[in-house]
Design a protein that fits this description.
Number of domains: 2
Oligomer: single chain
Structural class: alpha+beta
Shape: elongated
Mean pLDDT: 77
Number of helices: 3
Helix content: 25-40%
Strand order of the largest sheet: 1-2-3-4
Distance between the termini: 73 Å
Largest sheet: 4 strands, antiparallel
Number of strands: 8
């Protein structure tokens, strides 16, 4: 028996945001390069600086597209757990033989600052380590970790617990004018 679990994060809203954002980023980078093509003393912008701007632009586009649009497929069989990652036509496969899987570990990979979202990753450990999922809700990665640990009859470690939402102050009814 085998099954697969696909994590496909791409959505139209994300695609639209990415295209608009990276287009703005590229136009901004081109504007900087053109605006500073002549230095304060009339000296042209050095080729090193120009290529550094191009490199940064391409690197940001690639990293953002990977985070937003990679697709992960987890295939579960009695013989092995297989993680397949698809991104921009690139296909990588990581195989974890069932006999070598010793632990599934859930850990917090985001939300350490006050203003960011709390997210969780799930890692498989055996002869090597690899994140199966990342930037997921606590319940999703916890459910998958417990399920896989039970299937492979191995350990599951959930590090930490989600922080409870801040309690709201009770609503106070005010009547004007105060008496």
């Amino acid at each position: 028996m085998s099954c697969s679990y696909t994590i496909d994060k791409a959505a139209w809203g994300a695609w639209l945001f990415f295209v608009v954002w990276i287009s703005g980023w590229t136009i901004g980078t081109a504007g900087i390069a053109l605006g500073y093509s002549h230095g304060e003393n009339g000296e042209p912008l050095g080729s090193t600086t120009f290529w550094m701007l191009v490199f940064i632009d391409v690197a940001v586009a690639l990293i953002a597209s990977y985070v937003l649009f990679n697709r992960r497929v987890i295939r579960v069989t009695k013989m092995a757990l297989t993680l397949e990652i698809y991104w921009l036509g690139i296909h990588k496969r990581h195989v974890f033989p069932a006999s070598e899987i010793c632990l599934f570990r859930q850990w917090q990979d985001g939300g350490k600052d006050e203003d960011s979202f709390v997210t969780w990753a799930l890692e498989v450990q055996g002869s090597s380590k690899r994140n199966l999922v990342f930037r997921q809700a606590y319940d999703s990665s916890f459910w998958l970790g417990k399920l896989l640990a039970a299937y492979y009859e191995t350990n599951f470690l959930a590090e930490g617990q989600p922080t409870p939402p801040r309690e709201r102050l009770p609503r106070v009814e005010r009547r004007w004018p105060l008496k």
